[in-house]
Amino acid sequence: MTTSVRALVVAARARLTAAGIEPDESAMDAALLARHALGWDLARLIGHETDPPPAGFPAAYDALVARRASRQPISVILGRREFWGLEFEVTPAVLAPRPETELIIEAAIERTASSARLPGGPDTSHRRALFVDVGTGTGCLAICLAREFPAAQVVATDISPAALEVAARNASRHGAGNRVAFVRTSLLDGVNGPAALIVSNPPYVPTGDMPSLPAEVREWEPRGALDGGADGLDIIRALLADAPRVLAPGGRLIMEFGYGQEDAIRKAVWQSQLELVDIRRDLQDVPRTLVARLAGHSPLHHQPPTTTQ
After folding, report:
1. DSSP helix/strand/coil, 270
2. Residues 53 and 118 in one domain
3. Same domain (yes/no): 145, 248
4. Which of 61, 67, 114, 117: disulfide with 72, CB 3.0–4.6 Å?
5. Count of domains forming the chain
6. How many alpha carbons lie under 13 Å from residue 94 in its C-beta half-sphere?
7. Which residue has the higher pLDDT, 1 or 273?
8. Residue 251 maps to a domain
């Protein structure tokens, strides 16, 4: 009996669901893997789903589905992940970009002087604005900032040489190879300001929570990009402590944090030399991104943080 492309995709979806992947995710992944194996876009897949499969497709597709059923991340199988409308190379050496991390770019655009978005545009110090991306991974934040702010100078740090290689390839791919300086270092070590902006998606998973992470994350993404210490805030506290040394007066620190950490984040900012400007929520209404700035002390800054309900 002749089968169809659609029948193979339906069977793959069932196989992925049986492997413990959520049904909605299974449906999306089955279609993505089919498009990858076929070299088709979504419109062509829909338009030809009742056709017999091309020669070689069933075996190639089965191999891809087997990898996903073993809980290998779709981003590693495909070797890419979309972020801010761009496609980024992903390998096991880097954390795959997440949609919620786009909040950092949104906040940077809203909170950073518009002059940095104009090629050659001046800023208040009559020099190119300096942006720093700490723990760059794929380079997605640094590269997107370089594209959104053509007048800025961008420095991206990471302690992993393998991650920096991936980030450099992504920068070249997106025309930012000469706009971003990649530096192998720990956090902000060796970085000098004054910086108008520091961004980071740091490790923030509590060590005790690491075993309960999904297999796609726990087994395939670098532990150093995930494990934030006993309460998940070791790296965040280190950045809050060192950022004032690098930031210019009025400069912003925009940083992602984890579920249930808002109260601890507010306290940590209050104990630092920074002022909390905003806590932004993701599409699930989860507090996700802090915006802080370097400014003079004020009565507000010395008030204890309000505990969230």
Report:
1. helix
2. no
3. yes
4. 67
5. 2
6. 30
7. 273
8. yes
Tokens representing 233? 């805030």
Local structure of 158: helix, strand or coil:
strand
Looking at residue 233, its amino acid is L
pTM equals 0.88
- Looking at residue 226, its pLDDT comes to 97
**Structural contact between residues 176 and 185, judged by C-beta atoms closer than 8 angstroms:** no
User: CATH code at 137?
Assistant: 3.40.50.150
Q: What is the mean pLDDT of residues 132-154?
A: 96
d(CA 56, CA 199): 45
Strand order in the sheet with 180-184: 180-184, 153-158, 130-134, 195-200, 247-256, 287-294, 274-281
The β-bridge partners of 89 are 80
Q: Which of 18, 42, 70 is the last residue of a domain?
A: 70
Give the number of other CB atoms < 10 A from CB of residue 138.
27
My answer on whether 57 and 112 are in the same domain is no
The parent domain of residue 62 ranges over 5-70
Span 214-261, pLDDT tens digits:
999 999 999 999 999 999 999 999 999 999 999 999 999 999 999 999
**Residue 113 and residue 27 share a domain:** no
Answer yes or no: is pLDDT of 303 > 70.
Answer: no
Report yes or no on 80 lying in a domain: no
Give just the sign of the alpha carbon dihedral 70, 283, 224, 174.
Answer: positive
What is the rounded distance in angstroms from the CA atom of residue 308 to the CA atom of residue 236? 19
Beta-carbon count within 10 A of 236 CB: 26
